[in-house]
Specification:
The protein has about 120 residues and is an alpha+beta fold. It is about 35% helix and about 25% strand. The chain has a 4-stranded mixed beta sheet with strand order 1-4-5-6. A two-stranded antiparallel ribbon has the order 2-3.
């Protein structure tokens, strides 16, 4: 993988959040928590909710991004959430964006984060 692309899901998420904040986006990241029994669980009741929810209060834009590593695949629940946000996006083209993204998508994500009008 080229050096300028994120190497992992974690790095992709961190890079998106860092750049988003630099451009004035408000960011929310859904984390996984380790439970007492040693299992892991996402800390939300909305199973499959995208990893990152971003709002730009000045530009009037919203993004829902499900981040995946180089070999990661979205679960059916994650696909359902992204599809629901994409359906909303049809009513608000250029305002609402929803994608499953991986390291290879970094250049396109960067364009969306850095431009008032994509």
């Amino acid at each position: 993988m080229p050096a300028d692309l994120p190497a992992s899901e974690k790095e992709l998420q961190q890079r998106i959040m860092r750049v988003a904040k630099e451009f004035g986006w408000l960011c929310s990241h859904t984390y996984r928590a380790k439970l007492e029994d040693g299992s892991w669980r996402t800390t939300t009741t909305a199973v499959g909710l995208p990893d990152l929810l971003l709002v730009h209060p000045v530009w009037g834009r919203f993004m829902a991004l499900e981040c995946k590593g180089p070999k990661g695949r979205a679960t059916p629940e994650q696909k359902r959430w992204v599809a629901a946000f994409q359906q909303v996006a049809t009513a608000a083209p250029g305002v609402v964006h929803a994608f499953v993204v991986g390291p290879q998508d970094w250049p396109a994500v960067m364009r969306l984060l850095s431009r008032r009008h994509p």
